[in-house]
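R.M. (postdoc): so does anyone remember the format we settled on? I'll just put the structure tokens first.
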């Protein structure tokens, strides 16, 4: 059972009195999630994250999300003008097209967990796990769409309640961003069931990206991962955790915790339970990683205080090692 702090015994608004989250890597940047939360438009968030991130990306290890530059060729009538090298034109007064080695069109399906536990934010002003999941999913969607990949969205809690099929057509991304921005957290989760349903529903092989806190039994996930892999999908898993949730770092003498999905409450003594809690969290994470590795699933843990470009860089670096 996974618990969260019940503020003053009323409602479930976060962890009052919790120790501040660990600082983000490096100096504060516009990609910090708490800054992004003030933008308002999920589409603008995605563009800010991806365009800032991609400007320094020279080589992509993720086929279908970005490309590796190969060579130039002379422009021919009918070529896509987006691939014209205008700087080279300024130097030579001739038109050249950039050619790429991995310019493929993939189908990318984003699965976002909206169960009650995703509502958690460990301190005042921090983004919730669902907000971070929305930022991350939107950024990956934009990264895929700019390479002309088909992008789809599935959101789930106790049941799959949102489904946008993967398409590559004008106006489709507005639908993806719109549906993604309206997601709300609540209820229980059946992550493994959602993955099985996705495996049955998708008719074309592609990339399936799961964004969740992964409060699911690893043995149930193993079967779901195997189902997706059997259908030929490349599976990527992002586990989103709040720093307070991961570390259980509270100063209070007594805490009243509330189950985020069932509303069951439990008083605890932090000094007494902290060590056992951390050990169980570490064991759960280790088992998740073993389950993912055994089924050739890329697994990445991200914290809600991490800048979005850190999450993308960490993920793509892991993919580059394949």
């Amino acid at each position: 059972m996974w618990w969260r702090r019940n503020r003053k015994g009323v409602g479930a608004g976060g962890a009052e009195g919790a120790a501040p989250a660990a600082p983000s890597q490096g100096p504060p940047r516009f990609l910090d999630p708490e800054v992004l939360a003030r933008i308002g438009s999920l589409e603008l968030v995605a563009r800010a994250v991806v365009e800032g991130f991609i400007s320094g990306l020279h080589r992509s290890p993720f086929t279908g999300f970005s490309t590796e530059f190969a060579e130039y060729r002379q422009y021919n009538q009918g070529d896509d003008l987006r691939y014209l090298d205008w700087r080279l034109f300024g130097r030579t007064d001739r038109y050249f097209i950039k050619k790429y080695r991995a310019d493929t069109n993939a189908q990318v399906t984003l699965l976002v967990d909206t169960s009650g536990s995703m509502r958690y934010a460990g301190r005042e002003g921090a983004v919730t796990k669902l907000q971070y999941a929305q930022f991350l999913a939107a950024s990956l969607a934009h990264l895929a769409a700019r390479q002309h990949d088909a992008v789809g969205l599935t959101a789930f809690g106790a049941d799959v309640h949102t489904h946008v099929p993967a398409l590559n057509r004008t106006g489709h991304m507005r639908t993806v961003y719109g549906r993604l921005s309206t997601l709300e957290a609540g209820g229980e989760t059946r992550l493994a069931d959602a993955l099985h349903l996705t495996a049955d529903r998708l008719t074309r092989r592609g990339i399936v990206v799961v964004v969740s806190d992964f409060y699911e039994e690893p043995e149930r996930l193993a079967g779901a991962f195997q189902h997706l892999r059997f259908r030929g999908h490349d599976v990527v898993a992002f586990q989103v955790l709040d720093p307070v949730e991961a570390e259980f770092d509270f100063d209070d003498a007594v805490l009243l915790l509330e189950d985020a999905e069932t509303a069951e409450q439990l008083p605890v003594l932090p000094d007494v339970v902290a060590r056992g809690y951390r050990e169980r969290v570490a064991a759960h994470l280790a088992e998740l990683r073993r389950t993912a590795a055994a089924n050739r699933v890329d697994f990445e843990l991200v914290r809600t205080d991490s800048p979005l470009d850190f999450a993308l860089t960490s993920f793509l670096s892991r993919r580059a090692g394949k």
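R.M.: ...and that's the designed sequence above, right after the tokens. Also worth knowing: The longest helix spans residues 270-294. Residues 1-28, 58-70 have pLDDT under 50 and may be disordered.
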